[in-house]
Write a structure and sequence with these properties.
Elements: H1 3-9, H2 11-38, H3 43-46, H4 60-69, H5 87-115, H6 123-142, H7 150-158, H8 161-168, H9 171-184, H10 188-206
């Protein structure tokens, strides 16, 4: 169900879903910028992107997709690894940052839900549930190794330069490849696998 339809049918659920979804996407991009900055790349900071202000991150098409289809994106935080001493390590760490941030958000949400056990109820519990599910999904989706998703850049960090170039050439077509594979359901097992890994890690930490 698109968020616009949800807005009219159930305004409270709309707010409880839209707000964590929006900020989960923003935090994902913000994490890339912060790690790049910590490694010596000032690009995101100089462009005012190291902020939680959504107006600095919203992408018109990504926002429209979010409200129409319930899934969208923010403007990618600019990163220039030329500033980073070890560009290969920088690629791996910067690309992993958004996934790690989403996983940590999901972990904290689940931990808080556990504290409310055995029967969490009310708007706060609903918000935490949505926050956990959204961040697990974002982390799982971004682990897919197809450009321009983060998983492909993490993979590039471990590949020799020739294979890096081969994978990077797919990036102009990556969005269409991903949409096509999603439509065919071909990515469902991959997303479920990454989701299983993330949930398993979270279970170990909570236990």
């Amino acid at each position: 169900m698109g968020l616009i339809k949800l807005l009219f049918n159930d305004p409270l659920t709309f707010v409880l879903l839209a707000v964590p979804l929006l900020y989960s996407i923003i935090v994902h991009e913000l994490a890339h910028g912060w790690v790049a900055y910590a490694m010596g790349d000032p690009t995101a900071k100089s462009q005012g992107r190291l902020t939680l202000n959504p107006l600095k991150h919203l992408d018109p098409i990504g926002t429209a997709m979010l409200f129409i289809f319930g899934f969208g994106w923010a403007k990618p935080v600019p990163v220039h690894l030329g500033y980073v001493r070890n560009a290969r390590l920088g690629l791996i760490l910067v690309s992993s940052a958004g996934i790690v941030a989403n996983t940590l958000f999901a972990f904290l949400a689940v931990l808080l839900l556990q504290l409310f056990a055995p029967s969490p109820e009310g708007s706060l519990a609903t918000l935490l549930y949505f926050l956990a599910q959204i961040n697990i999904m974002l982390a799982s989706f971004n682990l897919i190794p197809i450009p321009p998703l983060d998983g492909s850049k993490i993979l590039m960090g471990f590949l020799p330069e020739g294979l890096q170039d081969t994978l990077s050439r797919l990036e102009p077509y990556g969005f269409f490849i991903i949409i096509g594979l999603l439509y065919l359901g071909a990515l469902d097992p991959v997303i479920r696998f990454f989701r299983w890994l993330i949930l398993g890690l979270m279970s170990l930490l909570i236990a």
